[in-house]
């Protein structure tokens, strides 16, 4: 038997489609987990009698938010390193001295799968409370096959335990593990030839990422990884031009990467290449803030090139210990100069593109997932306006009220 139709009426619907269409007297028809119809209530097709009618009480409705770049699964904290940075030590300096990502690697290796899950779950719950219905979670703190696998399994387990869609990304190329000291090429080779096919075979990865940076991996190593991933049919993405410009975004664009993320040191040419390739520029303002970076991503150039811009929390223990996508939106507007509409598109439609999920979610359109948030706000701009206040009223995921 076909599932029943539900009518959600009396809402102000921000579809977040390409034209950012808003229906002031809006309604949605959903069937099971999908949207069947969206529009002005006056245009509701009469022949579709819903089994159930839900009143949205004049609230604003947006698509469920999408956090398209996180390292949410980790153990421990790096508050001591933050304190060191406050005294003038830099992120790169701490990393070179064996701290940084390697210090979280030690904590993750020492943690059981259950411990990792238990430490990560509250962070996910904080994001869900803000209306996040889809999240990307990277590995990258295990750096052995077994520990990367453990992280990815926790990512999948979170999806089973909570009302959320989780996309997992293999970030084995996050930093060089101690076992491969001075042998970065050998490490990349083992990841390409052994880890990738195995983890892909276990259906644990949805995409492959690399930290292309002087304290990460060079251009040639990043490209080998992309080739190996793409040979398996896996999409690729890159931490690019965060602390310097190694030409990562140009190479990623040549490989039609889903996204290039950070981009503080990207140029106008990089922006144009990303736009031409359909690669999304993912901006991570909380990391910019927390590292007190001096250089901002080239937003005017990205805008001029019509590059898709997404915003994410980058939740991680080092550069971005935050679990608020709404705060990332506020920072993207104030610190990077995005408009309120750009910020909203950045956590909905464009974030879906950054995950290759644009056909399934990210806008309120027929055929897409019935993932949406009802907000206690008077104008849609409030979503990037409040700082530390959460105006979420209710969350619907796959057609069901979850919060
Ligand atoms: O996106 N830049 C590399 N990766 C993370 C930081 C990870 C960490 O410091 O633990 C980022 O900022
Ligand atoms: Fe990151």
Describe the protein's architecture and organization.
There is one protein chain. With 403 residues, the chain is of the alpha/beta class. The protein has two domains: 5-62 and 363-401, Urease, subunit C, domain 1, CATH 2.30.40; 65-354, TIM Barrel. 35% of the residues lie in helices and 22% in strands. The protein starts with a strand and ends with a strand. The strands form two sheets. Strands 1, 2, 3, 4, 5, 14, 15 and 16 form an eight-stranded mixed beta sheet that branches. The chain has an eight-stranded parallel beta sheet with strand order 6-7-8-9-10-11-12-13. The longest helix has 18 residues, at 184-201. Bound molecules: N-(iminomethyl)-L-glutamic acid and fe (iii) ion (FE). Fe (iii) ion is lined by residues 69, 71, 239, 314, 316.
Outline of this structure?
With 403 residues, the chain is of the alpha/beta class. It is 35% helix and 22% strand. The mean pLDDT is 97.
Low-confidence stretches: none
Class by SSE composition: alpha/beta
The count of DSSP E runs of length 2 or more, i.e. the number of strands, is 16
Number of domains: 2
Q: What's the story with the biggest beta sheet?
A: 8 strands, mixed
Report the mean per-residue pLDDT as an integer: 97
Overall body shape: globular
Whole-number radius of gyration? 21 Å
Q: How far is it from the N-terminal to the C-terminal residue, by CA? A: 28 Å
The CATH topology of the largest domain comes to TIM Barrel
**Residue share in helices?**
25-40%
């Amino acid at each position: 038997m076909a599932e029943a139709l539900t009518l959600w009426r009396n809402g102000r619907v921000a579809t977040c489609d390409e034209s950012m269409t808003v229906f002031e007297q809006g309604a949605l028809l959903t069937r099971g987990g999908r949207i069947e119809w969206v529009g002005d209530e006056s245009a509701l097709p009469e022949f579709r009698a819903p089994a159930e009618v839900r009143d949205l009480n004049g609230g604003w409705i947006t698509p469920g938010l999408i956090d398209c770049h996180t390292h949410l699964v980790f153990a421990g904290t790096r508050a001591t390193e933050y304190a060191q940075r406050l005294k003038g030590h830099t992120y790169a300096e701490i990393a070179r001295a064996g701290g940084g990502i390697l210090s979280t690697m030690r904590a993750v290796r020492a943690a059981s799968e259950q411990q990792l899950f238990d430490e990560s779950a509250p962070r996910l719950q904080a994001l869900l409370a803000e209306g996040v219905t889809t999240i990307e979670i990277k590995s990258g703190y295990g750096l052995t096959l077994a520990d990367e696998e453990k992280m990815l399994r926790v990512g999948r387990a979170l999806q089973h335990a909570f009302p959320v869609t989780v996309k997992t990304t293999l970030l084995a190329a996050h930093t060089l593990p101690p076992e491969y000291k001075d042998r970065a090429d050998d490490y990349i080779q083992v990841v390409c030839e052994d880890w990738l096919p195995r983890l892909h075979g276990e259906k644990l990865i949805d995409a492959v990422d690399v930290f292309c940076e002087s304290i990460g991996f060079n251009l040639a190593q990043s490209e080998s990884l992309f080739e190996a991933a793409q040979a398996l049919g896996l999409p690729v993405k890159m931490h690019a031009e965060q602390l310097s410009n190694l030409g990562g975004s140009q190479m990623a664009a040549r490989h039609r990467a889903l996204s290039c993320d950070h981009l503080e040191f990207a140029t106008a040419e990089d922006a144009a290449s990303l736009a031409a390739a359909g690669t999304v520029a993912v901006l991570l303002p909380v990391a910019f803030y927390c590292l007190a970076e001096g250089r901002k991503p080239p937003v005017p150039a990205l805008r001029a090139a019509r590059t898709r811009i997404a915003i994410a929390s980058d939740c991680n223990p080092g550069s971005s210990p935050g679990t608020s996508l709404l705060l990332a939106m506020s920072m993207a507007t104030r610190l990077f100069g995005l408009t309120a509409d750009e910020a909203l598109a950045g956590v909905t439609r464009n974030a879906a593109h950054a995950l290759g999920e644009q056909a399934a979610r990210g806008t309120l359109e027929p055929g897409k997932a019935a993932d949406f948030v009802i907000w206690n706000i008077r104008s849609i701009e409030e979503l990037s306006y409040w700082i530390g206040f959460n105006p979420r009223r209710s969350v619907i995921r796959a057609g069901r009220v979850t919060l």
